[in-house]
Structure formats: C-alpha cells, structure tokens
Amino acid sequence: MESQQILKLDIREDGVAIIEIHRPEARNALNLALRQALSETFRQLNHDASVRAIVLTGGEKVFAAGADIKDFATASTAQMYLRHTEQYWQSIIDCTKPIIAAVNGYALGGGCELAMHADMIIAGRSAQFGQPEVKLGLMPGAGGTQRLLRAIGKFQTMLLVLTGKFIGAEEAKQMGLVSEVVEDANTIEHAVELAKTIAGFSPIAVQQIKEVTNLGQDMSLQAALSLERKAFQILFDTKDQKEGVNAFFEKRPARYQGE
Ligand code: DAK
Predict the structure, then answer these.
(1) Is the CB of 143 under 6 A from ligand 1?
(2) What separation in Å is there between the alpha carbon of 80 and the centre of ligand 1?
(3) Domain 2-199 adopts which CATH fold?
(4) Is residue 170 annotated as part of the catalytic site, yes or no?
(5) CA torsion sign, 118 to 186 to 176 to 221?
(6) Average pLDDT of span 145-160
(7) Residue 2 pLDDT more than 60?
(8) Which CATH superfamily, name and number, covers 203-249?
(9) Is pLDDT above 50 for 250?
(10) Which InterPro entries match (predicted)?
(11) DSSP state letter for 218
(12) How far from 64 is each of 31, 140, 252, CA to CA, in Å?
C-alpha cells in the first residue's frame, strides 16, 4: 500500500481501489485534512478508468468516530459556514463507481454519514453505528438525518438521532443500514471480493445501475421507472452489452472493455 499520512490508497490490478482512513490515535476522527484527502482521492479514482470499484475502510479496529470534535470547540456559525465542508462530501456523492464501506468498530456521527455515502455497507460483528451529535448539543450535518430516513425509516431514525444510541452490526442489518455482517477478520477481504466481482462486469452497466438506483430514491415511481427504462435502453448501444450476451451463448466468461 502507498502510505500517505492519514489516508492509504491501494489501486490494484483487478480494478479495485482500497482507501483506508488512518488516524488511529483519534479513532479515525475526520478532521479537515482527512476530509480534504478523502475528497481528492475520490475525485482521482473517479477519473481513473482502471478503477472499477472502491472499498472504503478504517482498517481492522475502527471505521471513523465522527468529525474531529476539536474542530468544533470554538467555531462560530460564520466559520462553520465558510469552511464549506459540503464540498468535500460532494466528490464522494459524485463518484460514479460503486463504493463499498467495510466497517469494523465505531462508525459514529460523520463516520456513520461517511459509511452511508457508500453503495453497500459490509459490517464486521464488532461494528457500532450511531449519530451521537445530540449529546454534543449538535445534530447530524452531513446527511445523517436524511440518509438514515431513507435507509431505515422515520421511527428508527428518530430513535438514533434523538438519543444518540449506538447499534451493533446485526441490529443495523435488521434495520436496513447494513448489507451484510461478517466476522471482523473478514470484513475488508469480503468487501474486496464483492468489489472484485463488480469490477469484472461492464463498468457502463454498473455505473448506470448505481446512478438509477440512487436517483430513483428521490423521484416519483413513474419518473424513476422511466429513467430506469431509458438507462436500460442506452446499454444496448454498448459493445459490452453485445459481449455479455454473446459470451452467454458461447458459454465463456465475458470480457468487458467499458465500451
Ligand atoms: N474527535 C476527536 N477526537 C476523538 C473523537 C472525535 N470524534 N473520537 C475519539 N477521539 C479521540 C479521543 O479524544 C481520545 O484522544 P486522547 O484522549 O487519547 O488524546 C482518543 O480518540 C481515543 O478515544 P477514547 O479514549 O474515547 O476511546 P474509547 O475506545 O474509550 O471510545 C469512542 C471510543 C469512539 C466511543 C469515543 O471516543 C467517542 O464517543 N467519541 C466521540 C464520538 C462522537 O461524538 N462522534 C460524533 C462527532 S460530531 C458537518 C458534517 C458532519 C459533521 C459535522 C459537520 N458539516 C457538513 C459542517 C459531523 C459531526 C460529528 O461527527
């Protein structure tokens, strides 16, 4: 792995990129430098055609314990506004490649919000999710109320954001916040395996699936179904679609070129 100070990046030959948050002394708290590094890394990976799927992890022990609380100690409203940290999250939102969060340990506050920017969340049994901002006289500010609402519904969201309570991996899965629960030792490996599978598919089909699924959440059903249909039709103009169908009939693995 190429080691940067607070973020490690590994771009593998199989099309999988692994981003690892590395601030163990602060439970991977997301200070401004880390958020900026995450933003730049996602932008870089989005433009790198060799990257087909991204795994985002905090390593074996902790995903991220939220924003760095030190950044809040004396900040005024104007200073918080002028930081415009929403720009840092935007490059993750704009990433067209599938993102799989591999979560061990705490994913709290901004850490839980970061995990929810992913398209799938693989949780180790030790994972703990929560939005404890209310305990600091704050509230979630990077999508916590809204992404939870869409993932787990109003009543479970209110329970988490109004009490700050932590929930374990199994409970989070039952609520719909987690895709799969695995043993801690397997979290990253399993996420990478999933990413590798996805990286083997047509990147155009994969990216269309991601885009339509995400956009559809906030559209009327009729409009979303129409968007889905158009995206489906567009795929018929790709070489990858012909390759996929031909490979099926020729009983061989498809070789997708992203064209
Ligand atoms: N920030 C800074 N330092 C943190 C931290 C955090 N979020 N979490 C842990 N640390 C530091 C601790 O201060 C401690 O440092 P030292 O005392 O060793 O110097 C070290 O990490 C180890 O922490 P603990 O000793 O507490 O470790 P434990 O294993 O006992 O407990 C814990 C781990 C994660 C349960 C506990 O540290 C904890 O409750 N941490 C705070 C969790 C939290 O409240 N998170 C929410 C933060 S608010 C925004 C968008 C998003 C946000 C804000 C704005 N905009 C768009 C503007 C997000 C806000 C948040 O996330």
Answers:
(1) no
(2) 18
(3) 2-enoyl-CoA Hydratase; Chain A, domain 1 (3.90.226)
(4) no
(5) positive
(6) 98
(7) no
(8) Lyase 2-enoyl-coa Hydratase, Chain  A, domain 2 (1.10.12.10)
(9) yes
(10) ClpP/crotonase-like_dom_sf (IPR029045), Enoyl-CoA_hyd/isom_CS (IPR018376), Enoyl-CoA_hydra/iso (IPR001753), Enoyl-CoA_hydra_C (IPR014748)
(11) T
(12) 11, 15, 42
